[in-house]
Design goal:
CATH architecture of the largest domain in chain A: 3-Layer(bba) Sandwich
Number of helices of chain A: 11
Oligomer: heterotrimer
Structural class of chain B: alpha/beta
Number of strands of chain A: 26
Strand content of chain B: 15-25%
CATH architecture of the largest domain in chain B: Alpha-Beta Barrel
Helix content of chain A: 10-25%
Strand order of the largest sheet of chain A: 3-2-1-7-19
Number of strands of chain B: 21
Strand order of the largest sheet of chain B: 9-19-18-16-15-12-11-10
Shape of chain A: globular
Radius of gyration of chain A: 23 Å
Shape of chain B: globular
Structural class of chain A: alpha/beta
Number of helices of chain B: 15
Strand content of chain A: 25-35%
CATH class of the largest domain in chain B: Alpha Beta
Chains: A alpha/beta (415), B alpha/beta (501), C alpha+beta (142)
Helix content of chain B: 25-40%
CATH superfamily of the largest domain in chain B: Aldolase class I
Largest interface: A-C, 49 and 40 residues
């Protein structure tokens, strides 16, 4: 009987468990869960603050998930060290686990820059885990002034979650636009305007330099008063345990499209990995939930002896703030990168489709996002745009742009 | 407007409590009656365009629609009826011949409804068709006068070619052009499944339908559209069309607008040219001429196909039939004056020809009297509406019946009688692709199969009630019929007794 | 497993499937009551132009991207049928971002909805299939 050990208990781990069990129904699976929680969906913590979900519904899988999949979960335990020769994992409770196949799904941790005076701030939080959300919820009240450092996905989702609960929210970021990792200036502006209308204040191209109690001294020289400080500057992959035993790493653990690391019998998936972005053919850390699952699932199948690959990973995001939805996927190659951009723009709507080498390489849509998956699929399949009616599909995603024959296959066959 | 104005015949009644403005009526009406007014947010109707085809009624998901006869009427006049006056208006406006479609709608006598069927009681037991075998099969074609044997005593078997039908029903001629590809496919597939025949009509045979050959009757009409050697040999029989019940004595005219694509190819005439069938066959002015055509066709098909001669029921039909029976034809098809059409001049349709019941009775009698009944089989059509009409026709002497209007009803026709516009909302009498696709042959053929199967069950039940277990024993068995509400003369022609006699 | 298949040859673009879908999933027993003066949120949608139409609804993929990508675990496969737990869904729309057929949409409460083959309502068989006047939508094993 095979022995599987999974370090980590989030999305990639769940994917890994389901992957293993789709092949091997009897092997022994042990999950090392640093967090004291049943597998839950991390992106839901902002929805939790917004009261759109609750602790029960945040569970990523049904209550009988581990039982059904015959997993032994060690809660509140961390893996400290791997002995690759003996194939053992040492835990912080002094025990050790032996494995035949090991999954490192250690995820990432909030990155906290060494701000001067940060230790003088009483209410400071990261926004990553359910414990962070619970702590913030306990701390804030309707008069709280919240300063969020970081206008990325985490910072802004946190802002959305808190807006109804607090008095004021200010968001600062060193970048001169919001959501700089997924939006260009034009798109960012639309979303920023929308968020400002809802009452969020932005300090962009500016960041805290120093803290003094409840005051942040900004680089611009401005002072910002706050009661609660949330640090959402970014995340760093948790790779120490892998690096220590010589697994190839860069910014994160390097994996191939079967999710194998450089060491035999050791796999990795999720936010702690760096892998190929199919849309740009370069290795990246794409810390997004769907990819974590797909990686974990692929790894699980491979660990159990099947040969599976996940070779069309792309960065993608679907994110909405106060009813205005945005989606992005792939790589944005515009003229300067040898690509072409098709733009459709309205007041609260923008669509940018990036075309390079005759295929769709990426897109950004804010506003009407319906059927956007058809675009995503064009990226994933590297569909030759000359084979479809691009004029039609660029206006709105529709299967009508495909040939009658292909459409017939899609709609008249099992897929 | 003004003097030209004629108030619409129908009213669209929309129940606003039920209407959900789904727009199905608007999308489904080729006549463009319905329209959503975006400003008012209500569905409006332009009733002047409505032909009462009931497509919208049938597809309205909330049953919010009904079409009623408009009650805006001219002053009542028993002599000058509303429709008569309006026809005068229309002609005063257009200067043209009025056109109509489908069968004569006027309240002329329907003799089928004046004829009643016998049943067995006590002295001759009825037969239960669920327990006893019932034979409804018929063979159409020339029958031998007597059994002949060779020198060894074996029966000489040189029977003329026959059409074998498991039930005495066939789909009568409707051309590709007058009806759609999908209507034809439905008829062809149903005929094959039922083991009966459908009829190409005068528009030729689409290349896709050659596979249904054993269940096809190919027609040769005065326009000779689409006639060639392969065509003649493709079917189970060849029908020479001399006339049609809805328009005896006149030809046909399919406007160039309908001669497009495959219709043009199948008819072998250029796209856009009018397809004109002359009133006469230009090579037939006598029975002798007809005989020449009959034998030309037999020659062309190696004497393997029975030849049908189709004529309209007209005044001296008995003498005409007698002539045809001597022309070498194997089958005579007679089409009564209530038969349908894709388009006919209204005056002709409504005033020319005679009822099929009387024509059949006199033809069967005449052929028997002359001792030539075995020369031919008799097929009758022109508003055979149900199984009891079939049974009565057989008892009056028919070998089989042609049905077309009932077949179209099975395909969705709602008898709105505007085939001539080419905008059939049910996808039958149209060549517009977006309308043609409304008739899915998968559905259509199954409904035709259902219809004929149901009739066959009913025919067996009626036969069983009479104590007859083979349809051959019913043929010409007028003792099984009685008349009601008939004059002495009518009873004499039918050669049946009055009920009670 | 039986699935909904469409054949554009027979689709008339009448949009009845959309209304039948919206009605079947309304939980009400009268169509006028359910849909009158309301914006409808069907789980099947007609695409096409003036001449060609076809309906699109969930293909119930054997390897579904939506289920694998769902951030809440609201989407799952049950006996081959992809279903959504709308109580769990927070409306992040990642499923819309990944569905290759454009078959997932937002309902009136802004959470995701999709065809569940009328297994959760009282229609008995898929309402789009039952109400299609031309057999352009069928429910069968292929």
């Amino acid at each position: 009987m095979s022995k599987y050990v999974i370090i980590g208990n989030s999305t990639a781990a769940a994917g890994c468990i389901e992957g293993i069990r789709s092949v091997d129904n009897s092997g022994e699976i042990t999950v090392v869960s640093g967090e004291n929680h049943f597998v839950y969906s991390r992106p839901l913590i902002s929805y939790y603050l917004e009261e759109k979900t609750d602790l029960q519904r945040m569970k990523y899988r049904p209550d009988d998930f581990y039982e059904k999949n015959k997993c032994n979960v060690l809660y509140g335990v961390k893996a400290e060290k791997i002995d690759k020769e003996k194939s053992e994992v040492y835990l912080d409770n002094g025990e050790k686990l032996s494995y035949e196949k090991l999954m490192i799904a250690t995820g990432s941790s909030p990155f906290v820059p060494p701000f001067k005076g940060l230790d003088t701030v009483e209410n400071k939080f990261s926004f990553m885990t359910i414990d962070d959300a619970l702590a913030i919820e306990k701390t804030v009240d309707e008069n709280s002034k919240v300063l969020i450092v970081g206008a990325g996905l985490i910072g802004l989702k946190c802002a959305e979650g808190l807006l109804e609960k607090v008095g004021k929210i200010s968001v600062c970021d060193l970048a001169d636009r919001v959501l700089s990792s997924i939006f260009d200036d034009e798109c960012a502006k639309i979303m920023q305007n929308h968020l400002e209308e809802k009452g969020i204040e932005f300090l962009l191209g500016d960041s805290a330099e120093e803290f003094n109690g409840n005051t942040a001294k900004m680089m611009s020289g401005k002072d910002v008063e706050f009661d609660v400080l949330i640090l959402a500057v970014g995340v760093r992959s948790n790779i120490a345990i892998a690096k220590e035993i010589g697994i190839d790493t860069n910014r994160a653990i390097l994996v191939d499209n079967a999710m194998k690391t450089s060491l035999e019998n050791i796999y990795s998936a999720g936010d702690c990995t760096e892998y190929v972005d199919f849309s740009s053919n370069s290795k990246k850390v794409m810390a997004i939930l769907p990819n974590a699952y797909l990686q974990g699932n692929t790894a699980g199948k491979n660990m159990a002896g099947e040969s599976a690959v996940f070779d069309n990973a792309i960065p993608m995001n679907s994110i909405g703030f106060f009813g205005l939805h945005a989606m992005s996927a792939g790589s944005y190659f515009d003229e300067k990168d040898g690509g072409k951009c098709y733009i459709e723009k309205g007041e609260r709507h923008i669509k940018k489709l990036f075309v390079k080498d005759g295929v769709l390489s990426g897109f950004i849509i804010i506003g009407d996002v319906s059927k956007a998956g058809i675009y995503t699929n064009l990226i994933r399949n590297k569909t030759e745009l000359s084979e479809i009616d691009f004029e039609t599909i660029k206006k709105s995603p529709t299967l009508f742009a495909f040939s009658k024959e292909n459409r017939g296959k899609m709609l008249g066959g099992v897929v | 407007m003004g003097i030209e104005y004629i108030y619409p015949e129908f009213e669209v009644v929309r129940n606003s409590d039920r209407c959900i403005k789904c727009g199905v009526c608007q999308r489904q009406c080729a006549n463009e009656v319905h329209k959503l007014d975006e400003d008012l947010n209500v569905m409006l109707s332009d009733e002047a365009k409505c032909v009462n085809c009931q497509r919208c009624v049938a597809l309205c998901p909330t049953r919010a629609l009904k079409i009623v006869k408009s009650d805006c009427r001219l002053r009542e006049n028993a002599n000058w009826s509303d429709s008569t006056i309006k026809e005068v208006y229309k002609q005063a406006s257009s200067g043209g011949v009025l056109l109509s479609s489908m069968g004569n709608p006027n309240p002329l006598p329907v003799y089928w409804d004046k004829i009643l069927i016998n049943a067995s009681q006590v002295t001759n037991p009825p037969i239960d068709p669920l327990r006893e075998p019932m034979e409804t099969a018929v063979f159409l074609g020339k029958k031998p006068e007597k059994i002949e044997r060779d020198e060894n005593g074996n029966i000489k078997c040189d029977l003329a070619p026959q059409i074998n039908l498991p039930v005495p029903i066939m789909f009568s001629a409707m051309s590709y052009g007058s009806i759609s590809y999908n209507a034809h496919e439905s008829l062809a597939r149903a005929a094959r499944e039922l083991g009966i025949c459908y009829n190409t009509g005068e528009g030729g045979l689409h290349k896709d339908f050659y596979e249904y050959g054993p269940n096809t009757i190919v027609q040769v009409a005065s326009g000779r559209f689409g006639v060639h050697e392969n065509y003649l040999n493709a079917g189970a029989a060849i029908e020479i069309k001399m006339g049609q019940g809805a328009k005896p004595g006149i030809g046909g005219h399919l406007p160039g607008a309908k001669i497009v694509g495959d219709v043009s190819k199948t008819r072998m005439i250029p796209e856009g040219s009018d397809a004109i069938s002359p009133a006469p066959h230009h090579d037939i002015y006598s029975i002798e001429d007809l005989r020449q055509l009959v034998f030309s066709l037999k020659e062309a098909t190696n004497y393997k196909k029975p030849i049908i001669v189709k004529v309209a029921a007209v005044h001296n039909i008995a003498a005409i039939a007698s002539g045809i029976a001597r022309s070498g034809a194997d089958i005579i098809a007679i089409d009564g004056f209530r038969g349908g059409t894709g388009a006919a001049p209204t005056r002709i349709r409504d005033n020319v020809g005679i009822p099929i019941e009387l024509a059949l009775a006199s033809v069967d009698q005449r052929l028997r009297d002359e001792g030539i009944r075995n020369n031919v089989s008799l097929v009758v059509g022109g508003s055979i509406r149900c199984a009891s009409d079939v049974v009565k026709a057989i008892a009056l002497g028919a070998d089989a019946c042609y049905i077309a209007t009932s077949a179209l009803l099975a395909l969705g026709c709602h008898l709105c009688r505007t085939c001539q516009t080419g905008k059939c909302n049910w996808g039958i009498a149209t060549q517009r692709p977006e309308l043609v696709k409304r008739l899915n042959p998968d559905i259509g053929y199954q409904r035709l199969v259902n219809l004929v199967t149901a009739w066959q069950h009913e025919i067996k039940e009626l036969m069983g009630a009479m104590g007859i277990n083979s349809i051959e024993a019913l043929k010409g068995n007028r003792l099984m019929l009685r008349g009601v509400n008939m004059t002495e003369k009518e009873l004499e022609i039918f050669n049946i007794s009055h009920a009670g006699e | 497993m039986k699935r909904v298949f469409v054949n554009e040859k027979w689709c008339l673009g009448c949009h009845l499937c959309e209304y039948n879908c919206a009605f079947a999933n309304s939980g009400l027993d009268n169509m006028a009551k359910a849909l009158k003066d309301k914006k409808i949120y069907p789980r099947i949608r007609i695409e096409g132009d003036e001449n060609i139409n076809y309906a699109v609804s969930c293909r119930h993929c054997t390897d579904p991207m939506c289920v694998k990508s769902c951030i809440t675990g609201a989407l799952s496969i049950n006996d081959g049928v992809i279903t959504i737990n709308q109580e769990k869904c927070v409306g992040c729309l990642t499923c819309i971002l990944v569905c290759p057929y454009g078959c997932i949409s937002q309902n009136e409460n802004s959470v995701a909805q999709k065809c569940e083959l009328c297994l959760k309502n009282s229609s008995g068989e898929p309402a789009c299939v039952k109400g299609c006047p031309n057999n352009a939508i069928v429910y069968e094993e292929r």
